[in-house]
Amino acid sequence: MNVSSSGLTHRRVEMEDALKTAYALQNEGYAWHGAELARSLGLPEALAENIARALIASGWAEENEPGMRLTETGEARAVELIRAHRLWERYLVDREGMSLDAVHTEADHREHEMTPEELEELDAELGYPAWDPHGHAIPASGSRVPSPAGQPLLEAGVPGSKLRIVRLDDEPATLLTQLVALGLKPGIEIEVSSLESDLLRLRLGENVVPLSFDAASRVFVVPAPARLVPMGKLPVGSQAQVVELTGSGKLQRRMLSMGFVPGAEVTVIREAPLGDPLQYRVKKANIALRRDEANTLLVRVSSQ
Amino acid sequence: MTTTIAVAGNPNTGKSTLFNALTGLHQHTGNWPGKTVERKEGEFTHDGHVVKVVDLPGTYSLTAVSSEEIVARDFIVEAKPDVVIVIVDATNLERNLYLVLQVLELTDNVVVALNMMDQVESKGVKIDVEALSGQLGVPVVPTVALKKEGIPQLIEAVMEICEGKLDLQPASVTYDESIEQNIAQLEPMVGDSGYPARWLAIKLLEGDADVKEMLQAGGNSAAVEAAEALVQRSEEKPEISIAEQRYESISRIAQRAIHHEEGVKYLTDRIDDIVAHKILGLPILMLIAGFTLWAIYAIAGPIGGLFEALFSIIIDGASGLLAGTPWWVRGIIVDGILLGFQQIFVYMFGVLVVFFFIYGILEDVGYLARGAFVMDRIMKWLGLPGKAFMTIFAGYGCSIPGVMGTRIIDDENDRIITSVVVPFIPCAARIAAITAIVPIFFGSGLAATIVTLSIFGLSLLTVALVATVLKKTTFKNEPSGLVMEMPDYHPPLLSNVLRTTWDRTYSSMSKALMIYLPFSVLIWVLFHFPAGAAATETWGVQMGSFLDPVGQIIGLAGRDMTGFLFTYPAKELSLLYLGLSHGGVGEEEVAGFMGDVWTPLQALSYLVFLTLYAPCLATVAAMVKEIGWKWALWNIIVALIAGFGFAGAIYWGGVLLGFG
Asked: Of 3.90.960.10, 1.10.3730.10, 1.20.1200.10, 1.10.287.1770, which CATH number belongs to B177-260?
């Protein structure tokens, strides 16, 4: 994918960065002026005030006591920028093999250089991805940025809880580098093994890794969903609890009356000589089911 | 005033035993109107008061999954029995209480017979009977039906309800708020059909097709539509939530009344470790099946011999008595009717008794379900359900028990498919004909073995073809599967087994005779008229020339085909008729000359056709009884197609290859 190098002015980039920051502040419920922009962007206050006025002049923002507010066009442009940023991050990781902690800066450059058509093309080339590599949702063209899911690990991290990482703050970059080095990235499941005075210990597969409170506040998690398996896939001897019935008709009705209801405890007793059917114990009775029928029940494994 | 009580219960809870214990010998068996579900009725007298007992079919539930369930619930509502006894397996109460709660939704007058109480301890279960009765709000009587224990107390409780002496406050399941709201909304809409409104509302939410149909026919389609809308709007399928919540109620009842010890290894588990074993399972099944077939051949033969002798005496006597009557009266009575009786008793009775007896024992003990478990995969290749294995084995003895045996198959479509294909399995009669004819043309070495095995293989292929085609066409919308309880083993009760053996044999025999006898008379007439005609000029023989073109399809002469026509009632006579139509008498003589009449290819064609062409008349009778005349007719047509198709293909294929 080639990027057109249009004659972007330095001011334009500054304004768009401010626009994104303003959008984020506004979404989090903060009122903003030049001063807030200055703090978030790390710019001198005078320059930030200047930029803010430029935003108003270009029709992206307006005065709205006690602070300022983005106009509809301003919001639309902000979403477009976010979309471009996240699509580029996806591109850089997937197509150029760049590491997760390096893509943010590069995407920051590239996001400003896209026409809507090019953006569309990039989206299509990537197969319309839903998530950027940090776990942020990529807004569809013309939509709002979905509010981020999950809560900070620092809040959710009770020892013993099983969680799934949904997103990482992509700034500051050094912290992101550290998280990536530890193997923490969106989509993986972790278990909080202990909470100490200044750090959390997390279990990631076989490893236990320490994480500072500061870092833990930038990792966002949701409770790990119970892994449901089709009952026919359970090995002989395992026990499970029925969660969901996805079948229909007479067979399902018969299974229900035999006791295969949500919440029922099931043990796999044996397989028939030719591998099918299988014998299950439910409600103290032995019931034979073909694997196909068993697979219409989704269960949560309790032990094997 | 007669009192009527009904006995309901899960299969394998000792329901028949309880029924027998209540009624003794005062019972009769039939079918429920319009269903292939056995109906048993009996009576007993208590204090000079006659009590009629109706044995409802064994069911796990009262949904509309099977005809059994519909029969059971319709009887409870429509016949309004004074009391319903629900028999439950005390060693497996939770699952059994599911049916109890559903019966309680239909009627208040319920007594629970807590059966198999002698086994609870060994299975690590403790039951507080009083607490259970309190929870359910109806009398609970511990029984051991096998030893007739608790029967007087059970009758006592029944009579108390009849006389209104008991204050019944039956437990009813309260469902969660959203379901209860839906029920409340539907209740006023279901009309007055005799069924409890709450029950109808629940069934509508469960999506019960039978209840929907009934309400629509009764002009209450608004209720059906409203229910469908409510189901649509529900987050979870009400059918699932309702079942789930019934089981939750049961857990609460169980918590107060039942105590389980953990880790008790049942005898059943230890037996299953062997008979359902991954490697041993199949060989054990083959041994049992082999033994069954051996017993059929070893025992049925001598029984047939006895009947042959007995009927010879009767026939001789009758001939003497009828000496003064016209020749055709004598012919019809002696050679038509009495000989027909003899045939049926000689060839069928022994086979039926032996098979139904062994089958009854395997059923009573609980092994049938294990056999089905082990064989299910193989049966699936044939397009049949696992439980069909026993009826297929039976088919190698006689197609009639094979067809009758399909009753234990739960799914109606599977039952039809199995009944329709069982007759393709060569029965004892056909096997006898095959083993008699093969040596004439193929000797007794490898060639004979290959021919015999090929015929057997071809019959299985036909079974698989027909079953698969039916599955893929007529029954494609209702996928069948296997959801089968493997009940705990228990020792067989000989009196139970003998009784079911007798019931089944009697029912098959009477039906077979009713169809066979007129046909037997017809054949006699065809081969003896017009009056005074020479043996070669009777209608029957003349028909042979008409059949020449038909015979050509499979490379045989018309007179060979008349043989088929007349062996239609009973195929063991094939060789005899073959001789008759070629002017020979006696099987040995036939063996002597048929080798010159036919080429081996013609013999092969004959054998294939004989195996497939159509079930014998008695089997058709059994099919009519079990699955209705339309399916019986369907079977005959398909059998003819298969017979002509395979035999024709083999013959003409052989001719093309130069074997003609």
From this structure: 1.10.287.1770
